[in-house]
Design a protein that fits this description.
The complex is a heterodimer of chains A (about 425) and B (about 325). Chain A has about 425 residues and is α/β, with parallel strands linked by helices. Chain A contains 11 helices and 17 strands. In chain A, a hairpin with a 2-residue loop joins strand 16 and strand 17. Helices cover about 75% and strands about 5% of the residues of chain B. Chain B has 14 helices and 4 strands. Classes of the chains: A alpha/beta (about 425), B mainly alpha (about 325).
Chain lengths: ~425, ~325
C-alpha cells in the first residue's frame, strides 16, 4: 500500500490522483463554513463496524444468528455508553459465504462505507480470501471463525480472532478426555477438504499423546450425498467414531449410520458444527442419543449457568433449549455465536485502550489489541475466561463436551484453558504496520 | 472504413478505462481492477461460445488452472511474478489442449456435459491435494511475494494504482488480440463453424483443428485471467474452480452480447454493479427478506434468455451499428 511503483507512481512525486484529491479537499475546506462543527462531529460520531455477514449461501443459518447476537451486543454496549462515549453503528454487507464476494465486501466496508474495522466472518475460505484485502487497506479485521487460519501465522498483522478458539486448540484440548472416557481406538470420518483435514492433522497426534490412536481415517468427498458405501471401511475394533460432517447431508449421514449399526454402535464423538441450527430431536437423529459433542458454548441451559451466561442468553433471545424465544423451531448456532458478543467487547476494550479516534489510529488499535493478555469471565465474556496470544492474534479458552441425554445436550466435561494451548507457529508483531 | 471505426472505438474504451483511474473513488477503483481481470475471463469464454458456437460449462477449470499455476509456483517455489504468470497461462493452455482433444469428440449438449465433468474433476483435485492447495480454504500470497523488480523499477501489485494499471494492460492486450482474431481469416472460419459446421467442412476447412485452436486460445486467455487474479489479489482457492465460476462468464457474455468484442466488458461491469447495488437496495427495501444476490444473478439470466438473447452490444449491432465487431 505505502510502497508505490516507481514507474506508475514514483513514491517521491505527487500523483495526479493525489493532486486531484488535494484540490478537492482544499476546495471543501474553503467552502465549508461548518468545518469546526465537522471536527466536533468526528469526536461524537458513531464507531462504524463493518459486519461481513453470511446472510445467504451455505453459511446463512450461522449468519442469521451472528447478526442477532451482534445486534444484541451492540445494543448492550451502546446502552452502557458505547466506545469512548461514541455509539457503535453496524454496517452489514452480505458476502454470500463466497470468498470472492467476501474480499470485495471487505474492500467495500473499508473504502466505501469508511468503516473503522471489519468484523464477524465465520467460514474459513471467506476469511482467508478477505485477509489480503484487510492487510492491503490496513483495516483491522476481527473474525469469529474457529478456523486455524489466523493462528497459522499465514495471514497478516491486521487479522485477529480474539473471541473464539481455533479448531487446533479445540481438538487438542478434548483428545485426552476422549481417550480417557470413550475409548482408545478411534476412527475418524471427516469431509475431504481443509476443515476436515485440520481435524485429521491435529486430532491424530493429540489422541496419540493422550494414549490412544487413530486406527482409520475415512475422508468423504464433498460431493457425496449418501455415505453407506464408506461405513464398511470402519474397522470392527473401533471404540470411538469421530465425525465432523457438515452441510445439508449431515442428516442423511446420521440416518445411514444408524441403519448400518443398529443398536450395537461404538461411542460417537462429533462436532456440533454438524448440527448447529438443527433441532437435536429432529426425526432421524435418534441414533445420536448417548453420543458426545463438542460445544464452544452450550446450546441448552445448564444447571450451573453463571449470571453472565443467563444475561447473555436473554439479551440474544434464546430460550432454555437454545432456540429463538417464541419460535422453538428456530434453533440457534449457540456453540459459535457467543464469539460475536465477546469479539465486539474485545474491539471496545482495544479501542478504549488505544484512545481510538478514527482510521488514523488503526495502527494503535492493532497494537492495543496485541497488548491484551486475557479476559475475565463475566458479562462481556459469558462463555468463560480466556488467554489471548497477542503475537499469534488468537484466543485460547475452555471447551465443552456435551452428551445427548433425553433429547438435550448436557455438558459433562469442561476443559482447562491450558489443555488447548500449543506452540505458536507465527508472530504477527514482527510484521510492519 | 469499418476497421477505422473499430480501432478508434477499442482504443477509446482503453483510454476511458485509463482515465477512470483518476476520477474513481477508492472503492470503485478496486472494483474496476477486478472487473477488468474478470472481463478477460469473459473475453476468453466469448471466443469459444460467442464466435465458435461451443457452449462450455467448464471454463472455471481454465481460470483455475491459471490461478493455481501462478499462485502455487509463487507460494511453494518462490517464482518471480512474470514467470508465475507465464506458468499460469501455460498450465491453462496445456489443459485446454488436452480437454479440447477429448471434449471436441462430442457436440452440443454432450460437449456441455463433458466440459462440466472435467471441470468438476479439477475442482475435486484442488480439494484432494489440500496439502499443497489448502483446498476450499485456499492460500494467501504474502504481500512481499507480490513485488516485481525490473530494470531498477519496482512494482507492488498489492498497491491499488499499480494493480489497476496491471489489470488494464492485461485487459487492453487481450481486447486487441481478440479484435485481431475476430478480424482475421481464422476468426472468420470460427464464425463459419458456428453458423454451419458441415458447410465449413465441405469448403475444405479443417473444422476440428480450428475448433481445437479456439479451445486452446480461449483456455489460455481464461488462464491469463486466473493467473492475474491470483497475483493481483493475493488469494488462491478452490471456489474459483467450482461450477459457479463456469456459469458466471456465460452470464457476463450473454448480458453484454455474445460474439461482440466489447460485450464481455459491459456484461461484467453491469453484472458486478447489479449484484453490488441490489444487495444494498434489497437490504434497505425489504430488510426481513433475506434475498440472495445470487437470486439476482439467476433472475438476470432468465430475463436475458427470454427477452434479450443477443445481449446489449448484440442488440445495438443488430439495429444501429452493424460494423461492431
Amino acid at each position: 500500500m505505502t510502497k508505490k511503483s516507481s514507474i506508475i507512481l514514483p513514491s517521491t512525486s505527487i500523483s495526479r490522483r493525489s493532486a486531484l484529491k488535494g484540490i478537492a479537499a482544499a476546495g471543501t475546506f474553503a467552502a465549508a463554513p461548518g468545518f469546526v462543527r465537522y471536527a466536533q462531529a468526528q469526536s461524537s460520531a458513531p464507531i462504524k463496524i463493518g459486519f461481513q455477514a453470511h446472510k445467504t449461501g451455505i453459511g446463512a443459518a450461522y449468519g442469521r444468528w451472528y447478526e442477532r447476537t451482534t445486534t444484541a451486543a451492540v445494543k448492550a454496549i451502546n446502552a452502557a455508553g458505547g466506545i469512548n462515549g461514541r455509539p457503535i453503528e453496524i454496517i452489514t454487507e452480505d458476502d454470500g459465504t463466497d470468498p470472492k464476494r467476501g474480499a470485495e465486501v471487505v474492500a467495500k466496508l473499508a473504502t466505501q462505507h469508511q468503516c473503522d474495522v471489519v468484523y464477524g466472518t465465520l467460514f474459513s475460505h471467506v476469511v482467508v480470501a478477505s485477509a489480503p484485502v484487510a492487510g492491503e487497506l490496513k483495516i483491522p479485521y476481527f473474525v469469529v471463525s474457529e478456523g486455524y487460519h489466523v493462528a497459522s501465522g499465514k495471514l497478516n498483522r491486521y487479522c485477529f480472532q480474539p473471541g473464539i478458539t481455533d479448531v487446533r486448540s479445540q481438538v487438542t484440548a478434548m483428545a485426552p478426555w476422549v481417550s480417557g472416557n470413550l475409548g482408545k481406538k478411534v476412527t475418524m470420518i471427516f469431509p475431504d477438504y481443509a476443515f476436515g483435514h485440520d481435524h485429521r492433522d491435529y486430532f491424530t497426534p493429540a489422541i496419540k499423546a493422550a494414549g490412544g490412536e487413530v486406527i482409520a481415517q475415512i475422508p468423504i468427498p464433498p460431493t457425496e450425498s449418501s455415505f453407506t458405501k464408506y461405513f464398511p471401511q470402519i474397522p470392527a475394533e473401533t471404540e470411538v467414531l469421530y465425525h465432523v460432517m457438515v452441510g445439508p447431508a449431515v442428516l442423511t449421514f446420521v440416518k445411514e449410520l444408524g441403519e448400518f449399526y443398529g443398536s450395537n454402535k461404538p461411542q460417537l464423538f462429533g462436532f456440533i458444527d454438524s448440527l448447529e441450527a438443527v433441532d437435536i430431536n429432529s426425526p432421524g437423529l435418534e441414533f445420536l442419543d448417548g453420543s458426545h459433542f463438542w460445544e464452544g458454548c452450550p446450546r441448552y441451559t445448564q444447571a450451573n449457568d453463571s449470571e453472565a451466561m443467563k444475561a447473555y442468553r436473554a439479551a440474544v433471545g434464546i430460550d432454555d433449549n437454545g432456540a429463538a424465544v417464541g419460535d422453538p423451531k428456530d434453533v440457534s448456532t449457540a456453540a459459535h455465536m457467543f464469539g460475536c458478543w465477546e469479539t465486539l467487547y474485545v474491539i471496545k476494550q482495544a479501542m478504549e485502550a488505544a484512545g481510538y479516534q478514527g482510521p488514523a489510529d488503526r495502527a494503535k488499535l492493532v497494537e492495543a489489541t496485541e497488548a491484551i493478555q486475557g479476559f475475565e469471565e463475566g458479562p462481556e465474556h459469558p462463555q468463560g475466561d480466556k488467554v489471548f496470544d497477542g503475537k499469534l492474534h488468537q484466543v485460547y479458552g475452555h471447551q465443552n463436551i456435551s452428551k445427548v441425554e433425553g433429547g438435550k445436550l448436557k455438558v459433562v466435561h469442561r476443559t482447562e484453558i491450558k489443555d488447548g494451548m500449543y506452540e505458536a507457529e507465527g508472530d504477527y508483531t514482527q510484521q510492519a504496520l | 472504413m469499418n476497421i477505422g471505426k473499430q480501432i478508434i472505438l477499442h482504443i477509446a474504451v482503453i483510454a476511458l478505462l485509463a482515465a477512470l483511474d483518476y476520477v474513481l473513488p477508492a472503492y470503485h477503483q478496486g472494483v474496476f481492477s477486478r472487473i477488468m481481470v474478470l472481463a478477460v475471463f469473459a473475453m476468453g469464454y466469448n471466443l469459444l461460445f460467442g464466435y465458435t458456437g461451443l457452449l462450455s460449462l467448464g471454463h472455471a477449470m481454465f481460470f483455475a488452472a491459471g490461478l493455481y499455476g501462478a499462485g502455487l509456483t509463487v507460494y511453494h517455489l518462490g517464482w518471480a511474478l512474470p514467470l508465475a504468470f507465464v506458468a499460469g497461462v501455460g498450465c491453462a493452455a496445456v489443459l485446454a489442449l488436452a480437454i479440447g482433444l477429448l471434449a471436441l469428440r462430442t457436440t452440443g449438449v454432450a460437449f456441455m456435459i463433458v466440459t462440466m465433468m472435467f471441470a468438476q474433476v479439477l475442482y475435486l483435485a484442488t480439494l484432494y491435494f489440500g496439502q499443497w492447495t489448502r483446498g476450499d480454504e485456499g492460500i494467501v500470497l504474502p504481500q512481499p511475494t507480490r513485488l516485481v523488480e525490473f530494470a531498477g523499477l519496482h512494482f507492488d501489485f498489492s498497491n491499488p494504482v499499480t494493480r489497476y494499471y496491471a489489470a488494464l494492460v492485461l485487459f487492453a492486450a487481450v481486447l486487441l488480440i481478440t479484435l485481431g482474431i475476430v478480424r482475421s481469416r481464422f476468426g472468420r472460419v470460427l464464425i463459419a463453424i458456428r453458423e454451419n459446421e458441415d458447410r465449413t467442412r465441405m469448403l475444405g476447412y479443417n473444422v476440428f483443428a480450428n475448433k481445437l485452436a479456439a479451445v486452446v486460445i480461449s483456455g489460455a486467455i481464461s488462464g491469463a485471467s486466473g493467473a492475474a487474479y491470483a497475483l493481483l489479489f493475493g488469494y488462491v482457492g478452490s471456489t474459483f474452480a467450482s461450477v459457479q465460476y463456469s456459469i458466471l462468464p456465460l452470464l457476463w457474455v450473454l448480458l453484454g452480447g455474445a460474439s461482440t468484442t466489447l460485450g464481455p466488458l459491459l456484461g461484467t461491469v453491469l453484472m458486478y454493479y447489479l449484484v453490488d447495488f441490489s444487495s444494498d437496495v434489497l437490504a434497505r427495501a425489504v430488510p426481513d427478506w433475506n434475498f440472495s444476490y445470487l437470486g439476482v444473478v439467476g433472475i438476470a439470466l432468465i430475463v436475458l434468455v427470454l427477452f434479450f438473447p443477443k445481449g446489449i452490444f448484440g442488440t445495438i449491432r443488430a439495429h444501429w451499428a452493424r460494423w461492431l465487431p
